[in-house]
Amino acid sequence: MSLLNAALRRLFDLLLYPFQSLPAAVGLTVVSLLAAIGMLWAFKKTSNQAGIEAAKRRIYAGVFEIRLFNDSFRQIWRAQAAILRANLTYLRHQLKPMLFILPPLVLAVAQLQFQYAYAPPAAGSRTVLEATLAPGWESGGVETSPSGKPRAELVLPAGLVAETPALWIPSERTLTWRLRVEQPGDQTIAVRIGGRLYEKSLDGARPLERRSPVRPGRSWLDQLVYPAEPPLPADGALERVSVDLAPAEVALPGWTVREMVGVPAWMTVFFLLSILFAFALRKRFGVTF
Amino acid sequence: MPFVSSTETPRREWRLPLLGLLLALAAATPAEAYVGPGAGIALLSSVGVLLVTLLLAFLSILAWPFRALWRLLTGKKTAAPWARRFISVGLDGQDPRLTERLMAEGKLPNLKKLAEQGCYHRIRTTYPSMTPVAWSSYSTGVNPGKHNIFDFLDRDRKTYLPVLSSAEIGNVDRFLRLGRWKIPLAKPEIRLLRKSRPFWSILGDYRIWSTVLRMPITFPPDRFYGAELSAMSVPDLLGSQGTFLLFTTRRSDAKFKEGGQRVELAGGPDRFETSLRGPENIFRVGDPPLEIPMTIELDRAAGRARVRIDGEEHLLEPRQLTGWVALEFKAAPTVKVRGITRMMVTELGEHFSLYLSPINLDPESPAMPISHPSYYSTYMAKKVGPYSTLGLAEDTWALNEKVTDDATFLRQSYDIDAERQEMFFAALEKLDRGSLVCVFDGTDRIQHMFWRYLEEGHPAGAGRESTAHRDAIEQVYRHNDALVGKVMAKLRREDVLVVVSDHGFTSFRRGVNLNAWLLANGYLALKPGCDGSNEWLRDVDWSRTRAYAQGLTGIFLNLAGREGEGIVQPGAEAQALRKELIGKLSGLRDEERREVGIHQVYDAHQVYDGPYLVNAPDLIVGYNHGYRVSWDCATGVVAGPLFEDNVKAWSGDHCVDPNLVPGVFFCNHAIDKQDPSLLDIAPTVLRLFGIEAPAHMDGKPLFEKPPATLNAGPARAGGRESRAA
Fold it and tell me: Do A101 and B36 touch (CB under 8 A)?
């Protein structure tokens, strides 16, 4: 997973490099177009086009029947049942191509999430740094204070200031600091614990840049979800390090898209644009959905 | 079964790991919010469809009591109906002599069973025994003098040029000009010229549903309580009654005489850039034809052609007819004219030729009104897939011109029949109460083109390709019998099934050029210097012409006050001339063959009555078996012999004396009237549903009382379906 993520990080950094200094909407438009093209190609190769076409025809026929035989209860219900059956068939036909399309798409989305989902920390803004210790840390040679709090040292770059000492929450195994950003830039925060240094990046030099709220541990799922930074060492005292990042907005002409019900703004834009592109290009690809 | 599992296993191997991976991915936070464009569309449209259809169903059910109340208050009342469903299977041109012979030989078991269960009769056809005339009388219950259809063609009274008898398609003359573009400010008016009311329209007054599928002379469609899909007279996309296209490398100045266009392919030898010409673009000044670029690449080694039309690629092998190919002509931004065609490479050797069937209006999005309600053709296309919409759907002209072959024609005909059967059974399944009428044309078309196989010594026998199609006509009769069997299996206790043909069939060995006879006998004169070889009577000197033949059976007097340059005075002079012509032409002999060519000539005033008698030909020529109007005469050529051999594939016909070619009539109940006529069907249907036939109808109901076999009493007017007996 680490190797795959490393490769994907390089690929997406390269792909999005031309758009780093442009508004997010530009890069997202290109990415949505590429996603739509990829999806159409895969959909064409893996779907039962004739089956989808037939199911759609039956659905349309059912709709016409409801209108045509609107004096007959019996025909209306029969048409409704036929539509339901055709709809289920339609969904069944969609399943197979989705099985092929979703895995690469999710990997790509996971990468894009860390390019577009978070705003760069602004000067004067605050963030919370949280270091989660690995289960069984006590036996890992981590020194503790008499109260049982692990001894940890925060190593901050010049543009960041710790406003609080570390707050220890034993039940969650977390050490928490509040930080203030004095000078945004591509910065690396380090936590020294148990004699080792654990780093977490906090990049803010450019508007479009890979930034992740979490540096994951070695868990497969964590790495899949947070691929933007290499995982923490497996034998270390820390399980993950995270910072609070503000959600980014995407400015479209006449519409600033913000995070809605937990869905990042970029994803809304990506979803809409990729659907639009897929619709617009479906005939050229000879695809019906 | 081990083979099955061994082949299936590898295909399914991917499923489990992939499913696992998908589930794992679905747990990822970003994936929770994002399902991708494809899945998004699938989900959105599925949910959308369900919501819309539920809403539609809800609204329909909500409105139902109001509609029912409205019907109760405003609807006409019927007497107790005798039947719940009337189902009519029209077999165009099914001949009684052939039917009776094949039934006797045990080759039509279902029809025989139907006859034994109910009845079988020969049925009288109309004057003339021609599809548009006969089915119009079937529909309306009146003679042609009341429904105004006398032939396939009529004539323009001023110019004497032929016009379609059944529909008039107007032009748009008001446009908004915007540079090279012009926006039509009105729709072209399309008028059905058939008069009187078909029985389904009268049933509709009583809120009795009818579905009418491909009944001739229903273009534009009738508006009534029910659904109708137009047939005969529906043009192709070029506006003609069927123009096939032949793209060919063969050089020829000759034009196809019947319904075809030749397009010479330039360039080559293995790649050709050309275009497919469609209808005129009325959105552009000058009305240039709409075109779709077409590229043809020949792979001679593989023996196939790659044809690219409108971005779609088709790999064609010689003599393999494609399915329907959709064509989209772009007339203006957002305005597209859609058609469908079938293609076939007819030669791929030294020369290359590609046949395209007439471009039918796309039923999903027709450029003209071909159904009622307007979305019915779309509904049927969704239900059964694309289907032919052209009035005369089977491409007889291409076979006549030897562009296609017998096997291709049969394939076309049976494919069209299969489309029709699908539509018919889809409609039958939806019919709870009311009538369903459908006409199957295959019998007519196949008999027209394959009679030469049936008859030894037929002049067109030389055109027989092999003995493979010797039984083509018998096969289509058996095919019809199987269809009837399928229908019978779906009958319910209160159903009336009628299997009927509009006329019979006979041989067409010799053509008669009536205009040549009229010229030879001094009734028709030519302009000085003309030899009569120009089509559409262009060589005729009307100032010296008293009578002329036009259409397939009609002779018109050049009547003063009616025709543009008429010279025969109405009244006594006209009557005397009619009598004189009848006397001379009835029994006209073909001395070369020592046979009678014309059996009987009928005076229109004797066989018709009604307000449209004035539009009828003055005389109806009833040819003998084996004779018909010649190809030249039918196209208005005066020159040539009086009698000549017919050597075309079109070797059988029915445009003869109607008394020689009655139709067939089967019913699943015995009828009370002997010697039934096509005119009797409409009043019969009305009576079955408790409606008295209007006084103007000429036909009489075939049932005097409810048939004893029909549920022994009145059918229930509503409620649940009765079970099949």
Answer: yes
3-state SS of chain A: helix, strand, coil percent to 5?
50, 20, 30
Name chain A contacts of B18, Cβ cutoff 8 Å.
99-100, 103
**B29/A71 Cβ within 8 A:** no
Alpha carbons B598 and B586: distance in angstroms, whole number: 6
CA dist A218 → A113, A202, B549 (Å): 20, 20, 96
Fold of B85-149+194-232+373-502+663-716: Alkaline Phosphatase, subunit A (3.40.720)
Nearest to A222 by CA among A240, A236, A238: A240
Size of the A and B interface in Cβ pairs below 8 Å? 155
Contact: B42, A102; criterion CB under 8 Å: no
Shortest distance between the Cα of B160 and any Cα of chain A, in A, equals 44
Please say if the pLDDT value at position A204 is more than 90.
no
Q: Which pLDDT tens digit goes with each residue over B74-98?
A: 778 888 999 999 999 999 999 999 9
The candidate with the shortest Cα–Cα distance to B107, out of B585, B642, B392, B484, is B484
- Are β-strands B663-667 and B495-500 bridged in parallel, bridged antiparallel, or unpaired? antiparallel
What are the DSSP E strand ranges found in B132-256? 153-155, 162-164, 167-169, 175-178, 181-184, 190-192, 210-215, 226-230, 244-248
- Does a cis peptide bond (omega within 30 degrees of 0) precede residue B184? no
- Residue A138: how many other CB atoms lie within 10 Å: 13
Query: Which ranges in chain B are annotated with CATH 3.40.720.10?
Result: 85-149+194-232+373-502+663-716
Instruction: Flag whether residue B23 sits within 8 Å of chain A, measured between CB atoms.
Output: no
Residue A55, C-beta contacts closer than 8 angstroms, at least 6 positions apart: A86, A87, A89, A90, A93
CB contacts of A284 in chain B (<8 Å) are 311
Which of B181, B227, B486 lies closest to B334, judged by CA? Answer: B181
How far does the CA of residue B15 sit from the closest CA of chain A (Å)?
8
pLDDT per position as a tens digit, B121-159: 999 999 999 999 999 999 999 999 999 999 999 999 999
Which of A53, A105, A282 should be substituted to probe chain B, the one whose Cβ sees the most B Cβ atoms within 10 Å?
A: A105
Q: Is A213 on the interface with B (CB under 8 A)?
A: no
Using the Cβ of B70 and the Cβ atoms of chain A, whether some distance falls under 8 Å is answered with no
**B34 neighbourhood in chain A, CB within 8 Å:** 105-106, 109, 267, 270-271
Locate the domains of chain A by residue range: 2-117+256-285, 126-243
pLDDT band at B263 (very low <50, low <70, confident <90, very high): very high
User: What is the three-class DSSP state of B345?
Assistant: strand
Report how far residue B441's alpha carbon sits from residue B393's, in angstroms, rounded to the nearest whole number: 9
ipTM entry: 0.85
Is A60 near chain B, with CB under 8 Å?
Answer: yes
Chain A CB within 8 Å of residue B569 CB: no
| Residues within 8 A of A (CB atoms), B 30-59 only | 30-31, 33-42, 45-46, 49-50, 52-54, 56-57
Band of pLDDT at residue B719, cut at 50, 70 and 90? very low
| pLDDT reported for residue B21 | 47
Average pLDDT for A160-176: 94
| Phi then psi dihedrals of residue B389, to 5 deg | -120, -15
**Chain A (77-96) residues lying within 8 Å, Cβ to Cβ, of chain B:** 77, 79-80, 83-84, 87, 90-91, 94
SS3 of chain B: helix, strand, coil, percent, to 5: 30, 25, 45
Identify whether the C-beta of residue A202 lies closer than 8 Å to the C-beta of residue A213: no
Q: Which residues of B touch A35 (CB under 8 A)?
A: 36-37
Q: Is the pLDDT of residue B717 over 50?
A: no
At residue B180, what are phi and psi to the nearest 5 degrees? -80, -5
Cis peptide before B269 (omega within 30 of 0): yes
Confidence (pTM): 0.83
The single-letter code of the amino acid at B33 is A
